[in-house]
Structure formats: C-alpha cells, structure tokens
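seq:
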Amino acid sequence: MAKAAKPLLLDTHFWIWHQLGVAENVGHRAQGAIQEAADAGNLLLSVISVWELGLLEAKGRIHLDSACEDWVQEALATPGLVLVPLTPEIAIDSTRLPHPFHGDPADRIIIATARRLGARLATRDAKMLAWGRKHGLALL
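struct:
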C-alpha cells in the first residue's frame, strides 16, 4: 500500500493559479505535488482563501470567467480538495505565531492552518516563505 502524501495547503494565489490552469506560475514540481496530494485526498484550502478571492474579485484585482460564487463552487468541487474551516484553535494560533510575522490576517490564518494540520504550504509569498524557513514550516 502506498504511503499517503503529506497534506498540502494551498496559499490563495496557488489555489487560483491551479484552478485557472496557469502552469507557468505553479511550476512542474508543484503541479506534481498538488496532484499527489489531491489523489490522496490531502489537498487543503483554508476557508480564508475563499474570502481573499472574493475580496480580490470585488476590488477588481482579479477577473473570473463566471460569477464569484459559481467559480468558487466549481473550484471547491475539485477532486481531492478539502476545504479547511476556521476553527477556534486555528484562530487563536494565528494570533500567537512566533515573531516576527507581518499583520496580514489571512496570511496568519493560512500559516496557523498549515502548522495546526502538519501540512506543507504551497506559496510564493516571500514573507511567508522567509518566516516558514526560519520557523521550520514545511514548504513546497
């Protein structure tokens, strides 16, 4: 029996790129890791990423090919993708991250979610990567 892939949490931009099929932004190694996690049912998305997407779309910073709610429902139906709720534990963890960490609440929740679930994090966010390397967060 094959060993299940370690859970992989997508940062918001990785989720959007993956859903839009923007392979050049995701990269081959990441695409393989995403597919492996999805096949194992371990591809994770924080609910805060849905909020971030809605905010980006409302501000006109991203344009979707359908209504935001429809796009999200279709994206969440991706096989192997698991939507992770914002639990009280994750919310509290996000306020107690080892310093230094910037104040973006969505990034804090995504980091706390990855830590709480023992998941690798797929991100290109320089601040999150630097913090993750310094504090032992598993990164893609």
